[in-house]
Design goal:
Length: 452
């Protein structure tokens, strides 16, 4: 299978190249040239374990990786998860269930993609002998998960930009207390969007990119999207047969990567009724699905910091399907948005999405409500999902992080501080971090100084 850029000005490439490049050379995002029809496989896949399902799914896309290698990569990627089912479902009542995506090494759903990406990179470096530098921007969880996925991997240097003071203390510890010499956590003054803008500029410097073997781990990497599609598939196959086609998947959303990965499955024939985009006060996507207008706002820090964004980079992938693959229109929308900060779309209401928004003060209230009603503790991101759900319909809420990652908000909800042993260990370790300006030049010179 080949992969094409949303902007249509880069040549189609095989899977490994799309993964190695991250962003396509024309500034677009990679997508499969055509999508497989999964209806042919669904009944056969019901019997598979999570890693087996992941392998079966990736075999459809990653056909340039030797099958035994791919099997080894997939198996290794889910070995460090703390739950035998990898992505278990908890039923809170007949109509409301939670898909727990926080049993990976850094206790957030991003481990699903980044453990796999780390192993894909390692395999690639072994085969080509070419070292790489990974650059990412994080609002907290991506950086921790990327660092965990790439920790100590030979031939890889990891540079992660994060907004100083805007990630939780424990997220910062997950990034800065690894003791690994190939890891460089870079604090910037500004927001996640500032970090992301600077990062995009560095990636658009093609000469630099070639020179240092630069690769991306933020949610623009296609392998991340596909790895996330797998847990939607696994959940759908495990839901009760009589209700799975009616179940609404509710997704705490920031960069649109997670919910897009699910929606892509519905394009491959998996009958999923609806995706509900749950936002915090940074509600660009909620406004989009309510009004058809995609308009830049300002970012306000919230209790759900991994969703504090206003430019949802994966939205461009969705746009590709919305305009039936017409890359000229994608380029037009993208440049209009860059210039004016807003674009209007018609026909967004019938695409299988609904949306909601919660204010910051509602987050601890919801945590308390869910705890009192079901005896179940959710983290502040997951909490955003429970707003205005129709009690007559079945919902599956994606729990994107473990509540122990965000103890301050849980305490604010009047509940005892949640604990996790892996986080307790980090509290005893030394912090190593660096400061850079959120500009292309200062990021480039930091990388050059540190790749040896
Ligand atoms: C990253 C993250 C999100 C947002 O996911 P997107 O793919 O950016 O939409 C939500 N919750 C948590 C805990 C996260 O780490």
């Amino acid at each position: 299978m080949r992969f094409v850029s949303t902007r249509g000005e880069a040549p189609p490439v095989p899977f490994s190249t799309a993964v190695a490049q991250g962003l396509a050379p024309d500034g677009g995002l990679y997508l499969p040239e055509e999508l497989p029809d999964l209806r042919l496989f669904l009944s056969e896949w019901e019997k598979l374990s999570y890693p087996e399902l992941c392998l079966a799914f990736f075999e459809l896309f990653a056909d340039d990786i030797e099958p035994l290698n791919l099997a080894r990569i997939v198996k290794a990627s889910y070995e460090d998860f703390a739950h035998s089912e990898i992505a278990p479902i908890r039923h809170l009542d007949d109509k409301l269930s939670v898909l727990e995506l926080f049993h990976g090494p850094t206790l957030a759903f991003k481990d699903f993609a980044l453990q796999l990406l780390g192993n894909l990179y390692e395999d690639q470096i072994t085969r080509t002998g070419q070292e790489i530098s990974v650059l990412g921007a994080t609002s907290g969880d991506t950086g921790a998960a990327a660092i965990s996925g790439l920790l100590g991997k030979r031939g890889v240097k990891v540079f992660i930009l994060y907004p100083n003071g805007r990630v939780s203390p424990l997220q910062e510890r997950q990034m800065t207390c690894t003791g690994a010499s190939n890891v460089f956590p870079l604090a910037i003054e500004g927001t996640f969007d500032d970090a992301q803008t600077a990062l995009k500029e560095v990636f658009n410097d093609h000469e630099f990119k070639e020179r240092v073997g630069l690769s991306a781990v933020n949610s623009i990497n296609l392998a991340r999207i596909l790895a996330q599609s797998v847990y939607y598939l696994s959940a759908w196959l495990r839901l009760p047969k009589e209700s799975r086609e009616e179940t609404v998947f509710v997704v705490p959303t920031g960069n649109f990567g997670n919910v897009f990965a699910g929606w892509l499955l519905s394009r491959m024939g998996v009958p999923i009724e609806e995706f509900r985009v749950a936002t915090n006060r940074n509600d660009v996507l909620h406004r989009l699905f309510q009004t058809g207008e995609y308009a830049l706002g300002t970012v306000s820090p919230s209790f759900a910091p991994s969703m504090d964004i206003q430019v949802a980079s994966n939205f461009e992938r969705f746009l590709h399907y919305f305009v039936q693959g017409d890359s000229k229109q994608v380029r037009q929308f993208t440049s209009d948005f860059l210039q004016t900060g807003s674009v209007r779309f018609e026909g967004f209401s019938d695409l299988g999405f609904s949306s909601s928004r919660v204010s910051d003060s509602e987050i601890p209230e919801i945590i308390k409500f869910i705890h009192d009603r079901y005896g179940y503790l959710v983290d502040p991101h997951t909490a955003c999902s429970f707003k205005d759900l129709d009690p007559a319909r079945s919902h599956l809420v994606l729990a994107t992080a473990h509540p122990a990652k965000f103890p301050a908000v849980v305490q604010q909800a009047g509940l005892p501080e949640p604990r996790s042993s892996s986080l307790e260990i980090l509290k005893k370790k030394e912090i190593v971090r660096y400061s850079v300006e959120a500009t292309k030049e200062s990021i480039k010179s930091f990388i050059l100084e540190n790749i040896g």
